[in-house]
Amino acid sequence: MAKSTHQPFDDWILSQRPLSPYQAQTLQQHLHDCDACRELKESLNGVERLFKTAPQVAPKANFTARWLERQAAEKLARQRQQAWIVFGIVSVNALALIILLGSQIATLIGSPTNLLLLRAYTLSLGVSLLELIRTFALAGFNLRYGFPLAGLVLFTGVTSFLSVLWLVTYRQLTSSTRSISL
């Protein structure tokens, strides 16, 4: 396949940039001799005339309002779909948990001794949990002696900043008053 000699001329015809005087003169000479390039130039001029003379079509009345309503409806539909998916997942997990707990309780209720042992174990677990909470509270109270005052102030400041940042972000993400401005 022979290399096309029309390539620079095609590029110049279709270019949106102004041509140098040399390029313009060379292109005019080539257009005088080449029917294919002349036809391309005339076709391009015809398309440009069509664009300039075509009437502007205005959007139908209330286009923006209808578009915003459609966007809001689509967003609501997506949120509902996501809510149903989350509800389904939580429901399946809750049902699985109920079945597992029911099977555990059914084996324990089989004998009164197991039921009494379960009550004693639950009571000892509650006491252990209270002791764990008391230990952590004492450790937190005694922690103030391990850190200088500047460290505690810095920790409190950073914690407060992150809490406020989280609340603002959460508010922005859950806000339903966001709008699209045109």
Give the key terms.
single chain; 182 residues; mainly alpha; 6 helices; elongated
Biggest sheet overview: none
What's the SSE pattern? HHHHHH
Mean pLDDT: 83
Annotation field: number of helices: 6
Shape field: elongated
What share of the residues does DSSP label as strand, in percent? Answer: under 5%
Uncertain regions spanning at least 5 consecutive residues: none
Q: Evaluate the radius of gyration.
A: 39 Å
How many β-strands, per DSSP? 0
Distance between the amino and carboxyl termini: 53 Å
Q: What class do helices, strands and sheet pairing give?
A: mainly alpha
Overall helicity: over 70%
Outline the fold blueprint.
Elements: H1 7-14, H2 21-33, H3 35-53, H4 63-109, H5 112-143, H6 149-174
Report on this model:
The protein is mainly α and 182 residues long. Among the domains are: 9-53, no CATH class; 79-110. The protein contains six helices and no strands. It has helices at 7-14, 21-33, 35-53, 63-109, 112-143, 149-174. The radius of gyration is 39 Å and the shape is elongated. The model has no long low-confidence stretch (mean pLDDT 83).
